[in-house]
Structures are given as C-alpha cells and as structure tokens.
C-alpha cells in the first residue's frame, strides 16, 4: 500500500481496509475473514442438513407400513436421490470446510486463509447450487430420481431437472476445488515459525490430505456428469449401448470419484476426534507419526478400491479378487487409528464432557460401520447383500455415526472458542444420548432387513419386513428431532452469547495454538505469527 505524505512530510497511511468487521449485511456478503466464512459454511451446512433430513423423514414415513401411503414410487425415488446428494454435497462436505476455515489458521498460527477473496467466492458459489438442487423438485417432471450415484441409463431418461442437478454438481465441485487449493496453500506456506509439518495438529494434517483428494477426484466426477449431459443433449453415446457406449463405464468413472469421496467425508472427522481424545484423556496422542502415515495410506489406497461397489456387474473373478484384497487392506490403517485413540485413552485421566462423549461414541459406532464395510468387501457376500438395506445400514453407520458425530464433537469442543460462551453441559449430554440411542434404533434394524433381502430404494415391501421398518421409522423421527433440539437449545443460545462466559482455554488439557487467543476468537488473530519453542508445546511470547 502506498504511503501518502501529509503536509508535515510524515507518511499518512491511506487505510483502504477497515481493521474491524464491516457492519450489517456487507460483513457477510463481502466476507474475507476466515472466521466469518467458516461460520457461514457451518450455518449453510446445517440448513442443508435440515432439508436432507426432511427428505429422509419422508422416506421413513412412506416405509412405516407396506403398501403405498403418501408418495408415488417416482417421487419416492426423487426423495432418495436428493436426500443423498444434499447430505453429501450440501451438508457433510461444507460442514468440514467450515471447520477448516475456522480452525486451520488458528491451529497453524496463520493470520487468515491464503486467498481470502477466493474463499468468499467458493462459499457464495454454493448458494445458487443449493437453490438449483433443492428447487429441482419444482421443475417439470420433478427432481432427479436416478439415485444419488446418477447411474446411466436412468439419467438419460430424466426430465430437465437432471440438467439443473448436473450444473449444480459442477458448481459445487468448483467450490470444493477452490477451497482445497486455499487449504493446501495456507497449510504449506503460512505456518508459524517453528511449526514443522510433523508438529501440526492432526486436524490440519487430515485436511491437507483431504484437500489433495478433492483436487484429484472432483474433475473425475465432472467428467462423468459432463458425459451424461452430452449423452442427453448432444447425440453422444458414452453410456448408450445402442450407439456403442457402455453404462458400466459410467459406474467405473463415478466410483473412481466416489470411493475417495467417502474418505473425503471421514478424514477430517478423524482429525477432530484426534484433537478431542487427548484433551479429555489428559495425555498426548499415542502414535502421532503413525496417525499421519495411516491417514496418507488411506488416501492412497482409496484410489485402487473403486470397483468393490460393482461386484454384481459381471466382473472377472481376478478383478473381484484384486478389489476384495485391496479393500480389506484399507482396514489396516483405519485399525491403526482406532488402536491409537484407544491407546491414548488407556490409563488416561478421562472425564466425559460432551465433546468426549461424542468422540467416544464416534469411535464405538464408527468401528461397527467399519466392520460391516469389511463384510461387504468380500465379493461372495457382497453379491448377496448388494443394494439391500444392509448396505444402507453400513454407510449410515460410517457417515452419520462417523462424519456427523465428529462434527457435533467439534462444535462442542471448539464452539466456546468461536462464540465466547459455554454451552449447557446438561443439554449437550442430552443431545448426545438422545442422538446415539435414536441413531442405533434407526439403523441397526436395517442390517437385519438387508440380510433378509429387502432391497433399497423401494417404496413398498412385503409384509414380513414391517416390524423392523416401523422400528427404524420411529428411530429416524426421534433422531431428526434431536437435531432440531441441538439447534434451538445449544446453537442459538451460543450464537446469541447466552450462557456462562468461556475462558480462553475451557478444557484444561487441550493443546494447540487456538487456545492461545481469547474466547471468542477476535476478528483478527496472529497478525504477527507466534513463535513456537523447540518442543512446540507452548507459545513463546
């Protein structure tokens, strides 16, 4: 910035930027501050969680009894499709990006994200995409009903909403890629002096690896849905057998994106849990280095297992064996992580405040999801269970009890730092137990439904599946109301500043640079980067 000389010859800085936040709507629309953008991501993700949740409850209401109750099968298929797309691309991923925006600069001692305006752009791109996704229900022919995987040839038979969906996915992908570039550049170039890569908090590590995954696979998804678009409108036949195309090729391309995508949705969760468990066990994390290598191994292996989603497509036995063994191999680094968390808790001075409850609940229920994944990795078993409710149970144990539980853990853990207010411990614990019990009541019976042969994405079912479906539907409504409770009685009071004032470091054994700034974290932090001492356990003044 050029210095202007005043009439005394002294340099008078023409301050083009205010040092505080802008006021009113401008603060949010033109936000370049990582904390404001992180807050917007989190609120956006919660809004999408509610929309996706309403669709899920429509599905469970329809499945409460055999026969068709409320919705025709076409609309039911739209619900399953849009529930999946909105939860994955609208709720889970943006929520983790919100955490990244809030926490990575604080954890590595950076003043902000590397590209502040691009950060703003990558958030605001999501709004039109979300409107297009949610609005597709009101387009001619209704929302896409091809399943969230958007398999050909169904996608070639959908109405105009399919094109809106493809456009929305492109925009969300562009947003993800920009966010990832921002995260990588921030982590690699803006760490405080003395913070080597191997001294970074694991949350920063998991996001660094996740960001590389996103940059690698988002263009693959873009390719798959662009080929779908040209098949629909421009006379190509990538996926049309009549023109020499192959619908199975779509599945290969989609799952080459889709499998790394499931790790994109769980690796940041591992980072959050790795921050919380040591804090409440009052011990350093066991095996930090092995955790970093395990995270990287999961990311690398995620690229060679895609066809385990496709055992039923007529793959040669050699291919089945390769994908089976590669998939089982991923259990090793995942098991290393579980072992390290348990070893951290072993003989620690543990207390169970709400963040720790969520973290321990995560480890327990996520492990169950991991075991059902191991079962599905075996080709002969999977051919029986493919596209049944067993698969639905498996991936909800990983995505709800995995990603979502870790997100809640993170909100309770870092929320006091964000808002400057402590949540009500009683309400937090109520939210946890209510969610944990309702979650298991909802999804555990689905294993039995799947083993008995109930297919997924069906609006109707034979009489013998009634009991378990009714239990699941009741659990689903209970789980949904638990999240409304969370918003009204935990999030809203914290955002309004109602409650006990949070100390700078609310958790006695918490470690990291984020606890060196006041609560709530001021608008600008670390304008002069902190210097870390040799052991990197405390900050030098």
TrEMBL record:
Q: Which membrane topology term applies here? A: Multi-pass membrane protein
Chain intervals for the UniProt region annotation (Disordered): 522-541
Q: In which pathway does it act?
A: Energy metabolism; oxidative phosphorylation
Q: Where does the UniProt annotation locate this protein?
A: Cell membrane; Membrane
The UniProt entry, under Pfam families, shows: COX1
Q: Which residues form the Cytochrome oxidase subunit I profile domain?
A: 28-533
Residue stretches spanning the membrane: 41-63, 83-102, 123-146, 166-190, 202-225, 262-280, 292-311, 323-343, 355-376, 388-412, 432-451, 471-492
The record ties this protein, via Gene3D superfamilies, to: Cytochrome c oxidase-like, subunit I domain
Q: Which UniProt keywords apply?
A: Cell membrane, Copper, Electron transport, Heme, Iron, Membrane, Metal-binding, Respiratory chain, Translocase, Transmembrane, Transmembrane helix, Transport
Matching entries from InterPro entries are given as:
Cyt_c_oxase-like_su1_dom (IPR023616), Cyt_c_oxase-like_su1_sf (IPR036927), Cyt_C_Oxase_1 (IPR000883), Cyt_c_Oxase_su1_BS (IPR023615), Cyt_c_oxase_su1_dom (IPR033944), Cyt_c_oxidase_su1_bac (IPR014241)
Tell me what reaction this enzyme catalyses.
Answer: 4 Fe(II)-[cytochrome c] + O2 + 8 H(+)(in) = 4 Fe(III)-[cytochrome c] + 2 H2O + 4 H(+)(out)
Q: What is its EC number?
A: 7.1.1.9
Q: What function does this protein fulfil? A: Cytochrome c oxidase is the component of the respiratory chain that catalyzes the reduction of oxygen to water. Subunits 1-3 form the functional core of the enzyme complex. CO I is the catalytic subunit of the enzyme. Electrons originating in cytochrome c are transferred via the copper A center of subunit 2 and heme A of subunit 1 to the bimetallic center formed by heme A3 and copper B.
Q: Which family does it belong to?
A: Belongs to the heme-copper respiratory oxidase family.
Q: What is this protein called?
A: Cytochrome c oxidase subunit 1
Record organism: Pseudaquabacterium inlustre
- Encoded by which gene? ctaD
